[in-house]
Design a protein that fits this description.
four-stranded mixed sheet; 24% helix; globular; 8 strands; alpha/beta; single chain
């Protein structure tokens, strides 16, 4: 068994698609109209057939209180592995990304937390 698809709830799918592709560097895999919304997934360019991230609309009534509580408590909605947290932090900051947590070393793990501009906190992480 392996993870095929996971999702983040986003306030604006088009804005999220631009952020996750143009800024974070993911690649669009699917973009299928579904009524008022779309089925949009992105993947790592390093693993085009790997796990897909669904940019899921935040329309369900339970989503906004959930997202608000996570952000309020500083809890990331997702975690993405990078080779070098500090280098990625600097690259993203140069692109105007806001971080709620600068790179933090915790033993063999380094993390940083960013705002995805669509209502979520996202963690980037590297484990030695």
């Amino acid at each position: 068994m392996k993870i095929h698809l996971t999702s983040v709830f986003v306030d604006d799918q088009e804005k999220a698609l631009r952020f996750y592709t143009d800024v974070l560097g993911f690649v669009k895999k699917h973009d299928v109209p579904m009524g008022e919304d779309r089925w949009i997934t992105v993947v790592s360019p390093e693993e085009p057939n790997g796990t897909e991230l669904l940019l899921e609309p935040s329309g369900h009534p339970a989503v906004q209180p959930y997202k608000t509580a996570l952000v309020h408590d500083g809890i990331p909605a997702a975690s993405f592995a990078v080779d070098d947290v500090r280098a990625e932090y600097e690259r993203l900051r140069e692109l105007g990304v806001f971080f709620t947590q600068e790179p933090l070393e915790m033993g063999s793990v380094t993390t940083a937390v960013l705002d995805d501009t669509c209502g979520n906190l996202i963690q980037i992480v590297h484990s030695a």
